[in-house]
Amino acid sequence: xxxxxxxxxxxxxxxxxxxxxxxxxxxxxxxxxxxxxxxxxxxxxxxxxxxxxxxxxxxxxxxxxxxxxxxxxxxxxxxxxxxxxxxxxxxxxxxxxxxxxxxxxxxxxxxxxxxxxxxxxxxxxxxxxxxxxxxxxxxxxxxxxxx
Length: 147
Known about the structure:
The chain is of the alpha+beta class. 35% of the residues lie in helices and 27% in strands.
């Protein structure tokens, strides 16, 4: 239960900071505490990962379908969180930008649910017309916490 309470406390702290228009990276004493580690921005107990693409040619020669791209992006997320001392279980919020959501939502969601089996994070998504890299079907970012 401690984990669930910690998760709720972190989400409440993030929500309060946003509602008060105070940067989440600002500590209670007013000092700025922000550190970048392996592509992850850490502020206090919060981790921010942004812009994880669904396809990188240097990792996979062909773009693949939305299922493959979702698995690739979430695997990158999982690895980055582990490097920063956290895990997928500590993800509080996920945002997905998705090309052609009418056709790609269900297959993306099928793979997504294998990475977040229980205590799923809050999630939002929006449709996208495309990305800088032709063939990329999604981009994911998240907020997580670390003890």
